[in-house]
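Input chain follows. Return structure tokens only.
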Amino acid sequence: MLKAKKDAVSDMAETVTEMPSVMADLENIVQKAVAAAVEVIRQEFSQRLSVLEARLETDEARLVDMESTGIGQSSVDDQTLAKELEAVKRMSRGSALQANDNEQYSRRNNLRIKGLKLKTECTSHECTTAVVEFFRTQMHCRVDADNIDTAQCSSS
């Protein structure tokens, strides 16, 4: 039994002495595997970076083309359109005011009085005075000259 113990101890001693060489082999294998993995990852990143750079260059070229063809001028066009729109709005407002002014002289807002005896050539003031007098004496209504915008004599 002693011999068996000695053999076991000597086997252990050999194993312990062989251990550093096995560890060194393992370290070499791991280093090679890590170096290979790092190289593969480096290549993958390099490829992806190249693809991204190519896309960036393409997008930059497209942007330069768009700017040179006038897409950058849209703000100028927008400003021109805004000015034209404002001018049209002013003209529309002016037309509406003019239509409102014209409406006050339409037939439904006018009063025609026939049969007043006036001179054939009378002024607007004389006509207004005659109308005010007619309403006061004949119609028994109080009408001031300020209530009459325009009065004119006609021969018909």
